[in-house]
């Protein structure tokens, strides 16, 4: 009987200890899981906050892109409208008599007949082109002289030298032509013409006409 009682006591003590240890272990695990869960939730909240901030930045960027796109479309429409409304300025004039003779130093060359004179900016009586609008213009002179003749000419802008042209037909039977082209920016009202140089040795003073000598110009682009 004593032996059996001793065995019973020996078995009941470890069972209580195990039960307590097991309860403490579960509590510890729960605490750890709770702490891990809190850390995970904090990370999720942080990621969610970063996503909201990134979405806000993307929305701002999209608004800027939309605004830029709208400005570009508006600019394109304005440019198209401006091109449609831009005036056409262009002329070509020729020397119609057979020759211009006895030209003096500094004398304007009169190209008396126009083939084209859009905007009526070229004056056949004076040989002067007057810019009707501020912009970049292209001008060309093509001059012919007969054998034995020579001449120094120049583009001038409001009376100031821009560019020379020299034509020389040394002799024989052949006429000689020379062409020069210049690009210049003009203000509204600026004037351009061709004249002999002011030097006393400007040349023989004779140019061949019959529409072989020409003066042309046109508006390339309007400037602000």
Give a verbal description of the structure.
This protein has 224 residues and is α+β, with helices and mostly antiparallel strands. It folds into 2 domains: 1-85; 90-222, Jelly Rolls. It is 38% helix and 33% strand. It has 1 helix and 12 strands, in the order αββββββββββββ. The chain has one helix at residues 2-85, and strands at residues 90-94, 99-100, 113-118, 122-123, 128-130, 135-145, 150-157, 160-168, 176-186, 191-196, 207-208, 214-222. It has a 5-stranded antiparallel sheet, with no helix packed on it. β4 (122-123) and β5 (128-130) form a beta hairpin. The longest helix is centred in the N-terminal third of the chain and has 84 residues, at 2-85. It is rod-shaped, with a radius of gyration of 47 Å. The model is unreliable at 1-13 (pLDDT under 50).
List keywords for this structure.
rod-shaped; alpha+beta; disordered N terminus; 5-stranded antiparallel sheet; Jelly Rolls; 224 residues; 33% strand; 38% helix; 1 helix; 12 strands
């Amino acid at each position: 009987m004593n032996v059996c009682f001793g065995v019973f006591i020996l078995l009941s003590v470890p069972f209580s200890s195990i039960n307590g240890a097991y309860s403490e272990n579960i509590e510890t695990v729960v605490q750890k899981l709770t702490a891990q869960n809190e850390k995970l939730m904090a990370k999720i909240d942080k990621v969610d906050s970063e996503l909201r901030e990134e979405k806000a930045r993307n929305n701002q960027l999209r608004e800027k892109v939309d605004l830029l796109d709208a400005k570009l479309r508006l600019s394109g429409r304005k440019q198209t409208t401006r091109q449609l409304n831009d005036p056409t300025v262009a002329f070509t004039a020729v020397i119609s008599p057979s020759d211009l003779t006895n030209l003096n130093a500094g004398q304007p060359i009169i190209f008396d007949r126009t083939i084209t004179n859009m905007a009526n900016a070229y004056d056949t009586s004076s040989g002067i082109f007057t810019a009707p609008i501020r912009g970049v213009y292209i001008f060309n002179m093509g001059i012919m002289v007969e054998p034995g003749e020579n001449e120094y000419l120049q583009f001038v802008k409001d009376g100031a030298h821009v560019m020379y042209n020299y034509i020389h037909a040394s002799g024989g039977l052949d006429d000689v032509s020379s062409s020069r082209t210049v690009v210049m920016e003009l203000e509204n009202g600026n004037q351009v013409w061709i004249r002999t140089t002011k030097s006393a040795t400007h040349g023989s003073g004779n140019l061949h006409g019959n529409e072989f000598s020409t003066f042309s110009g046109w508006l390339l682009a309007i400037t602000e």
